[in-house]
Amino acid sequence: MADRTRPSGLFKNVNAKIASIPMILTALCVFLGGTLWTVVYSFTDSKLLPRLRFVGLDQYERLWSAPRWLVSIENLAVYGVLSLILSLVIGFVLAALLDQKIRFENTFRTIFLYPFALSFVVTGLVWQWILNPQFGIQHIVRSLGFESFTFDPLYNADIVMYGILIAGLWQGTGLVMCLMLAGLRGIDEDIWKAARVDGIPMWKTYLFIVIPMMRPVFITTLVIITSGIVKLYDLVVAQTGGGPGNASEVPAKYVYEFMFRAQNLGQGFAASTMMLLSVAIIIIPWAYLEFGGKRRG
Q1: Residue scoring higher pLDDT (256 or 284)
Q2: Cβ(248)–Cβ(155) under 8 Å?
Q3: Cis peptide leading into 244, omega within 30 of 0?
Q4: Could you report the per-residue pLDDT of 9-44, keeping only the tens digit for each?
Q5: Angle at the Cα of 26 (from 23 to 32), degrees rounded to 5?
Q6: How far apart are CA 288 and CA 143, in angstroms?
Q7: Where do transmembrane segments lie in this chain (predicted)?
Q8: Which candidate, 153, 152, 115, 119, places its Cα nearest to that of 234?
Q9: What is the per-residue pLDDT for 1?
Q10: Which uninterrupted H or E stretch holds 95?
Q11: Angle CA 97–100–101, to nearest 5
């Protein structure tokens, strides 16, 4: 017979549920409300101040016909694909090396993770100095006698995004390494012993056994990296300011320029809505695969 004195599920942890009400209301009003407000006003001709004068899809048509926006999308795609691949590869390789129980592991882990503690503005300024041809890497190499050596990615419109990518990888790879290392430390030691007994090469053990077992870690890391890529802004502003010309323009900077400098809120809202859509395209499938699959199981 059921215990009638035991509270039902609705009344369990009442104090915790009451305490969470302000957070839920804040999320609904600020985040969800702000998102809906942005989407609605992206269909208006708002300039300096928001106004409800709808113009249909005019802002989106103007957005996708603007060369500056198309350049920003292309730059973000180049940066995003390379950053995603290189961050995962470098982070996993570093984690695999640290997982070999090497000496001074804590020291190396601190060194690799330290750049992540810096803000993107500081990182951008540091790498702006390092890549400056007047006193950075190019100057140092030329002073050693290699007069023809050229390395000025931040001043070359064709490769400026690769200079920004270097700074981004320097800062973000340490976090990926820590996430991967945590996943590797969760692998049962008996799996490694069985692989060695069976004579399986280490690279095959990683490729066909360890990496598939770390799928949740890879998915979580993928979401973290991708969300950071979409909102790329301060690193670009600190290193190049979007230059030379508009060669390093990115969507987040485009939104800022139109909302706060060009005084064209409608265009900024349309651009930010497209950024929101790109994040939703990433988050929704991930949430479905992670939580929908478990419910079906």
Answers
A1: 256
A2: no
A3: yes
A4: 556 777 777 888 888 888 788 888 888 999 999 999
A5: 125
A6: 56
A7: 21-43, 76-98, 110-130, 159-184, 205-230, 269-289
A8: 119
A9: 46
A10: helix 67-98
A11: 120
Which residues have CB under 8 Å from 263's CB, separation 6+?
47, 48
Average pLDDT over residues 232-260: 92
Question: b vs e for 130-155, b when ≥16 Cβ sit within 10 Å of the residue's Cβ?
Answer: bbebeebebeeeeeeeeeeeebbbbb
Gap between the Cα atoms of 83 and 222, Å rounded: 11
36 and 30 in contact (C-beta within 8 Å)?
no
Measured at the alpha carbon of residue 181, what is the angle toward residues 180 and 185, in degrees to the nearest 5? Answer: 120
CB proximity list for 69: less than 8 A, separation 6 or greater: 63, 251, 254, 271
- Enter the pTM of the model: 0.85
Shortest CA distance to 171 belongs to which of 130, 209, 217? 130
Please, what is the average pLDDT of the chain? 87
Query: What are 58's two structure tokens?
Result: 């005019």
Instruction: Report the amino acid identity of residue 177.
Output: M
- Alpha-carbon distance of 216 to 24, in angstroms, equals 27
The phi and psi torsions of 235 (rounded to 5 degrees) equal -65, -40
Using the 8-state DSSP alphabet, how is residue 51 labeled? -
Give how far Cα 90 sits from Cα of 96, 124, 172, 174, Å: 10, 20, 10, 9
What number of other Cβ atoms are within 10 A of residue 258's Cβ? 24
Indicate the angle between helix axes 265-287 and 33-41, nearest 10 degrees: 130
Work out the angle at residue 129's Cα, subtended by the Cα atoms of residues 125 and 131, and round it to the nearest 5 degrees.
115
Q: Taking the alpha carbons of 125, 131, 135, 141 in that order, is the dihedral positive or negative?
A: positive
Q: What is the CA radius of gyration of the chain?
A: 24
